[in-house]
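> tool_call: predict_assembly(chains=two)
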Amino acid sequence: MKSLKKLSLVTLFAALMVFMAACGGGTSKDNTSGTDKKNDTTPKTEEKQELSGSLTVSGSSAMQPLVAAAAEEFMNANPKADIQVNAGGSGTGLSQVSEGSVQIGNSDVFAEEKIPDKASELVDHKVAVVGMTAAVNPKVGIKDIKKADLIKVFTGKITNWKELGGKDQKIVLVNRPDSSGTRAIFNKFALDGATPAEGITEDSSNTVKKIINETDGAIGYLAFSYFTDDSVTPLAIDGVEPTEENVQSGKFQVWAYQHSYTKGEADGLAKAFLEYLMSDDIQNTLLKEQGYLPVTKMKVERDAKGNQKDL
Amino acid sequence: MQICIYPIMTYFRGVWCIMEKIIPAKERLIKSSKNRMDGELRGKILVILCAVIMISATISITIFLGTKGLQSFIKNGVSLIEFLTSTHWNPTNQANPEYGALPFIFGSFAVTFLAALIAAPLGIGAAIFMTEIAPSWGRKILQPVVELLVGIPSVVYGFIGLTVLVPFVRAHVGGLGFSLLSGMIVLSVMILPTITSIATDAMGSLPKYLREGSYALGATRWQTIRKVLIPAALPGLLTAVVLGMARAFGEALAVQMVIGNVRNLPSSILDASATLTTIITLNMGHTTYGSVENNTLWSMGLILLVMSFAFILLIRYLSSRRKL
């Protein structure tokens, strides 16, 4: 009996090892790009040109929900394709795509700003636009701010809301980390490049929203998609309301592209997936659900240096 | 021992064999001594392998972190003196980047020592309660409570801190709520179980004759605890505190949520601050590999590693002083 028990244990263990080895083999193949995988198992698909293979996407955590949702729908339509979407930050995405360990690297800033020496190897696919604006605690009592005042608030030159016609309340800044793409965009287009004064620093937009909501006199900045309730008040800048239409017409300046980078021109599954992201289907429905603005409807265009021009 | 009679592969005393008939007792006995030697060897190899994997993992992490962490000084030309002593941290400023990590180093030490200041008396007190005052029922209640505290994930501590502690501090103590004080309270709860359980072991391992001798001399229970047991267990108790501090020093997530992550040197306990770990977790994902920003984060990681080595050396020194 004892030996039998041992045998079953060993068999079980061996089975587990084989199972794990099989799984491990599968994931390690994720990094080898292309459609060649699974050719041996499904030789009949040639005539239908069905999409198959695996694709790994990494990068910006702000884009992760959008790309993951799109990937899910894409995989429903193409059951043989396998797309993995990881979040790790824009820097991680750009590093990984430029060293070839993933096929698509998502970033909320231009690659030229993060990796100037390697950016020329990467091809930019702008898949969405995100608008952001300053958000204040509802008790502050202002809804509109002049850009010059906004800069003074963030650089610490104005320290009380009553100077701007609000409540007598000390201003509390909520920043993003130095390296954050959101911070870079906000500094560049809302603060005209001024360096903000020190304040509470949090990375996650949800945490920032929670802090602004709970702290009297707090001001921070959030993407439009976070203004779903009245727990924080979005500010109009120079009288321009932070709306989709104003971003699309170029009147509201604080917005950024969401980039998907590939190393060299996209091919195979990566190309098909990027085309799917740009399709009307995704641009007009999923993007809106996730709080992004469709890049296809933009009436203005911006380059890596921040110059804006009409389309 | 079961004798194999089935025509199948069977595991018998350390060897695989196909057995079709009963082996005579004599053969089995002779074989078994040899087989046992095989078993000895196999066991030894297995155990040595485990040890080698452990040691090589530690050494390779140290080497990796060392090379990565020194890059910012060697390759990017960041001054080590500036890194350790300057209070200006501004790595993204294109024209004039500054790399002074002193506020974060200070923040790490400040929360660690403040947390130990709260957790050490509480933990040691609980240990004395469990071993001396109420060894039976006290231990039965307190032990599971302490173990439960270990099981709560750090992100939950952080979230409770953010939702309950930060507004509480803001309303009743002052400041923004995001402060060294909040970080210290969250951390002290987190390291309490470490300190309590190790201190309990230290107190419990004291020989009985110490207590009996003290009582025989007419000392009261409190006198025995204060004058005999605590001095005798002191190296063990200090080890407990240092281990707790090592844990506090490396904690990132919970602290990040309540400390405010401000780059300035805090001037009071109610000021927001930042630690090495929180700066690493906030920035790591946004920076690209090989960039100066990224390398300076690795340098902070190296400082954390060096500090944890220092904590371990301290623990080894303390336990070598243990006389009982």
